[in-house]
Design brief:
The complex is a heterodimer of chains A (200) and B (250). Chain A is an alpha+beta fold and 200 residues long. Helices cover 50% and strands 12% of the residues of chain A. Chain A contains eight helices and five strands. Chain A has helices at 2-25, 32-47, 53-69, 92-96, 108-120, 125-132, 137-145, 168-174; strands spanning 74-79, 82-87, 123-124, 149-154, 162-166. In chain A, helix 2 crosses helix 3 (53-69). The model of chain A is unreliable at 189-200 (pLDDT under 50). Chain B is mostly helical and 250 residues long. Chain B is elongated, with a radius of gyration of 44 Å. Chain B has a three-stranded antiparallel sheet. Chain B has helices at 15-25, 35-51, 58-75, 94-120, 147-160, 175-187, 207-222, 242-249; strands spanning 195-196, 226-230, 237-241. In chain B, helix 1 crosses helix 4 and helix 2 runs antiparallel to helix 3 (58-75). The chains are: A alpha+beta (200), B mainly alpha (250). Chains A and B meet through strand 2 and helix 5 of A and helix 1 and helix 4 of B.
Chain lengths: 200, 250
């Protein structure tokens, strides 16, 4: 029926527009859950039929295609377990001019330490030091300060050292959807290889 | 294979970083490191750092010692293979190679993170911004007002408020005058009758007045003019006229 189709697509257009408004105004990525919640608080009550996660995802899909296909400087990015609107990378040169101060990128020491935490979490400072062969106290402090890693517990060994893990900000900072979105670790060669012992 | 090489000082994150650099630069097989050569280059690097007055972190020095130890062990004839150790003993280099391999993995992972950082840096996002004038029916809901809002509002109020000017007369008070006042008040007391310290100061007495009264009282006690009693800490002090008490006791 034409009526049914129109009603549905109208509803999806309306949803997509509402979601776009939400994402535009938000200062951090919004999860599908959160968007569905808000949409139901306002819309669901009027229409009678509740907005589902599928409705939200479909609307996000529509939104993403629109941004990709149209001449738009804005992108819909799936990041840190949610969605956010960002400027398209290719316009970075223009947008960058707006801002005088640039936050410096992470130092080599911080990046190495962060890589170790990201792939080996939860992990203690001592274990990080061991892998890097050098004291990582400063790097760990910097990463905590920038909210990229945090305390996630205590290791149940003598001294109960702090265990570190990555944060949601870590995912956002590197544009990762979730922790499984990390690039695979370069081949972690088994250490037994190549020393007298022939492999069987 | 002894080669002189110009030492270009780069900043290395640690001894493993430096070792890895020496190995990759010369395309050495990581599983078969020419330990004598690498040790020599490694130590050469530390010397160069010292000559440049760069601080050599202790970890670098420890690694130099480890390398020399491995070098020494490599020079020793291998022990005969024992029964448990059928493979002819462990290569002295194994431990360090293990560390290098593990380190290399994360160094490369760090490079990829750096690439991702660079990509994400090219995407700008908005800081959230609520309209400056939010329509309100005057009713506040839980969570609508944050502590910071209250602080801001308080600061506004403080700035808006006109400075209050008022003359506060300085209390003209001296211990001597207070002593005379106390003496006057107790002069008419019968033996065994006390007045309370709290009646020696005005109800609205400031801290200064109370202190002066107390000092005056202490001074009178010292001079033997009054006797004081206090039933317990923080309770009111009873003030007796010493002259009367003496008179009674005498």
């Amino acid at each position: 029926m034409a009526y049914g189709f129109e009603a549905r697509s109208l509803r999806r257009d309306e949803l997509a527009a509402a979601i776009e408004a939400l994402l535009f105004a938000s200062d951090s990525p919004l999860t599908v859950d959160r968007m569905r919640e808000i949409l139901n608080e306002v819309m669901g009550a009027q229409n009678g039929s509740a907005v589902s996660d599928e409705d939200v995802v479909a609307a996000l899909d529509l939104l993403r295609r629109r941004h990709e296909e149209s001449v738009s400087g804005i992108d819909l990015q799936e990041v840190a377990g949610g969605y956010q609107l960002t400027t398209k990378p290719r316009y970075a040169a223009y947008v960058g001019r707006l801002f005088k101060t640039k936050t410096p990128g992470l130092s080599q020491a911080a990046l190495e330490t962060l890589a170790i935490v990201a792939y080996r979490q939860p992990i203690t400072r001592a274990e990080i030091d061991m892998l890097r062969g050098v004291n990582s106290e400063r790097a760990v402090a910097t990463l905590i300060e920038r909210d990229l890693i945090r305390e996630v517990g205590r290791k149940q060994v003598a001294g109960r050292p702090i265990l570190y893990g990555t944060t949601r900000e870590f995912l956002r900072y590197f544009g990762l959807k979730d922790i499984n979105d990390l690039p695979p670790l370069p081949e972690d060669t088994p250490s037994e290889l190549g020393f007298g012992a022939t492999r069987e | 294979m002894k080669a002189s090489y110009p030492v270009k000082i780069e900043i290395f994150e640690g001894p493993l970083d430096l070792l890895l650099h020496l190995i990759t630069k010369q395309e050495i097989d990581i599983y078969d490191i020419p330990i004598a050569l690498i040790t020599e280059q490694y130590v050469g690097y530390l010397r160069a750092m010292e000559e440049l007055d760069l601080e050599v972190a202790s970890e670098f020095v420890v690694m130099a010692a480890t390398l020399m130890e491995i070098k020494a062990r490599m020079l020793l004839p291998r022990p005969r293979p024992s029964v448990e150790d059928a493979e002819g003993g462990e290569d002295p280099r194994k431990e360090i190679v293990d560390m290098l391999l593990k380190y290399r993995v994360f160094k490369e992972a760090a490079l990829r993170l750096k690439e991702l950082e660079g990509e994400q840096c090219r995407r700008y996002t908005r800081p959230g911004m609520a309209p400056t004038a939010v329509q309100s029916d005057g009713q506040l809901e839980m969570g609508e007002v944050r502590l910071v809002d209250l602080v801001e509002r308080w600061k506004d109020l403080l700035l808006r408020r006109k400075p209050v000017t008022e003359n506060i007369p300085r209390e003209n008070m001296s211990v001597g005058r207070k002593m005379r006042e106390i003496l006057r008040k107790i002069s008419g007391l019968a033996a065994g009758v006390a007045i309370m310290f709290s009646t020696l100061v005005r109800a609205a007495a400031g801290r200064r007045e109370i202190v002066v009264a107390f000092l005056a009282l202490l001074e009178l006690v010292r001079r033997g003019k009054v006797h004081v009693k206090q039933a317990g800490p923080f309770l009111d002090i009873e003030v007796y006229n010493s002259a009367r008490m003496k008179g009674r006791e005498a």
